[in-house]
Amino acid sequence: MFPERVSSLKTSGIRKLFEAAPRGAINLGLGEPDMQPPPEMIEALCRAVTEGHNKYGPSAGVLELREAIAEYLRRYRKDVSFENIIVTAGATEGMRIACETILGEGDEALVPNPGFIIYGPDVKLAGGEPVEYPLRRENGYLPEAEEIRSLITPRTKAIIVNSPSNPTGTVFPKETVKALCEVAREHKLYILSDEVYDGYVYEGEHWSFARFHNDTIIVQSFSKSLAATGWRIGYVATSKEIVQQLSKVQYYTLACPPTATQFAVLEGLKVLDRFQAEVLAEFRKRRELALKKLAEIPTFDTPAVSGAFYAFPKFANDISSERFALRILEAGVICAAGASFGSKGEGHLRFSYANSLENIAKGLDVVKELAARL
Ligand SMILES: Cc1ncc(COP(=O)(O)O)c(C=O)c1O
């Protein structure tokens, strides 16, 4: 009755668990910072509304914000101007319109497995074919350039990458980023890089793909960096030509990004560094505690990954990740089943440490007790 590209879409496993949670459950499931956005940004939103920024704006976003984002990005890429930026309704919409813009019918895009859940469906909704590349525990969940090369066919158009990664928390080192850019250059592919966790790096450094490859489409968001998941605001940074095409697609998808929110983010950008530093200091403590607690679980193998706010233990208990996550839910803790992120996520659980130290400790004690019984 419905076209396959729609009927084959699955309801997000993460959302399903969240919605089935008992009252008072400890949430180590969802991927959003628990703090409120910076007060300067909240005040700016109220001001924007009262000052009358309540009407349609340009499809690619208001010029002032596009210019401010470009200025921010010039820290690592000097040639960026407002023409390289389109403001979007978060990374979710940014990834979606990017796939629609660059993929033709039957074109292939390489997507990570395990990986964030939107990539495969986005490729399919654009009429393309997702081809999965594995991320393996023994390789620190990093993509391997040679393996990526072996998956390329004449129909391949893009490699979708995500560092720092959801669900694994891996941060790609410079060599990995450069090696993938080299593959993309050799085969004339786009790199579609989801960098929404770029501010959440606890060790080492974030290396944007835009530093090494011109045909890069950076998908970004203020959801995580300014703790504003519900505001639905982000951007895509890429070539001027792609931005022009994206703006057309965005017009037919969204008309324009929300106007008042853009004026608020303009203020948010001014305090982004300070806010991120504060959030990171808090999350660093949480990460340490989460890793310490998870290390106490004998059936869990949890790599000490250095980014995002997820721990992704591989477990030795004889149970599927979905059943395990359900049992944990019944015991009062929400987490995500590894299988929600692709077949290679089976045998894993994802715990978000975007919660208080107290809740992380309590929640992981519950998990430890349950893991001992299974
Ligand atoms: C890797 C990744 N990309 C994109 C998103 C979606 O971000 P946004 O809120 O900007 O749509 C998320 C949200 O969890 C994510 O984890």
Describe the structure.
- The protein has 374 residues and is of the alpha/beta class.
- It folds into two domains: 4-37 and 273-373, Alpha-Beta Complex (Aspartate Aminotransferase, domain 1); 39-271, Type I PLP-dependent aspartate aminotransferase-like (Major domain) (Aspartate Aminotransferase, domain 2, 3-Layer(aba) Sandwich).
- The protein is 41% helix and 14% strand.
- The protein contains twelve helices and 14 strands.
- It has helices at 4-7, 13-19, 39-50, 63-73, 90-102, 119-125, 145-151, 174-187, 240-254, 259-295, 321-330, 357-373; strands spanning 26-27, 85-88, 108-113, 129-134, 156-162, 190-194, 216-221, 234-237, 300-301, 310-311, 314-315, 333-334, 336-337, 349-352.
- The strands form four sheets. It has a seven-stranded mixed sheet with strand order 2-8-7-6-5-3-4, sandwiched between helices. Strands 10-14-13 form a three-stranded antiparallel sheet.
- β3, α6 and β4 form a beta-alpha-beta unit.
- α4 packs parallel to α10 (259-295) and α5 crosses α6 (119-125).
- The longest helix has 37 residues, at 259-295.
- The radius of gyration is 20 Å and the shape is globular.
- Bound molecules: pyridoxal-5'-phosphate.
- Residues 31, 90-92, 116, 162, 166, 194, 196, 221, 223, 229, 234 line the site of pyridoxal-5'-phosphate (PLP).
